[in-house]
Amino acid sequence: MEVSPGVRLLLDFVNTYDVESGVYALPSFLASERLAGLGPAAPAVELWEGLRAVLTLHTEPSGEQDAVAGLNALLGAAPLTVRLDAHGGAELVPVPGLRGAAGLTALVAAAVAGACADGSWARVKACSMENCRWVYFDRSPAGRRRWCDMAVCGSRAKMRAYRAAKRGQAGPPGATHAPAGAEEAGTGGVRQLPRRGEAR
Ligand SMILES: [Zn+2]
């Protein structure tokens, strides 16, 4: 499944802030060529936070349900219009000539509507790992992937579950296998976090 330009925009927008490393690249995203002509988009951070919170529900369905109402309120201000094509199709697009925050909000709203229309919205997800929240497109056949990177956040989550299971059981470990590094990492307060790979 290919990532549409709209979904690519959503991923790049939310990932302008890397929760784990603290790298913040929103200004350069807003200044990028595809957003040329938009001008300053001051409330971008609110929109960004709202989107990330909703995308987290795609991996943590029992999470913060207020996130949906919050994002709805922001997207409610997005001026969209319907554009027909010559093949019997139609899509929601930003009203022409928008600038600033309204322009960005409309671009995001149109991208969300487009992803819903082509069935890819549920596959746009924020990593289930709390200190990561990297946003990715889930290409797995069943669409049940919960982590940005199985080798990094997936193994962290398994290690955490393994430790919790180990604490909770009196006898020897049963079918649960320790992930690589679980023993060496111990239960101390300091964790060595592996860096995320390039494969996302
Ligand atoms: Zn992650």
From TrEMBL:
Domain (Zinc finger CGNR): residue spans on this chain: 123-164
Biased composition (Low complexity): 170-185
InterPro entries membership: ABATE, ABATE_dom_sf, Znf_CGNR
Highest rank taxon of the organism: Bacteria
Region (Disordered): 164-200
One matching Pfam family: zf-CGNR
Protein name (database record): Conserved protein containing a Zn-ribbon-like motif, possibly RNA-binding
Organism listed in the record: Micromonospora halophytica
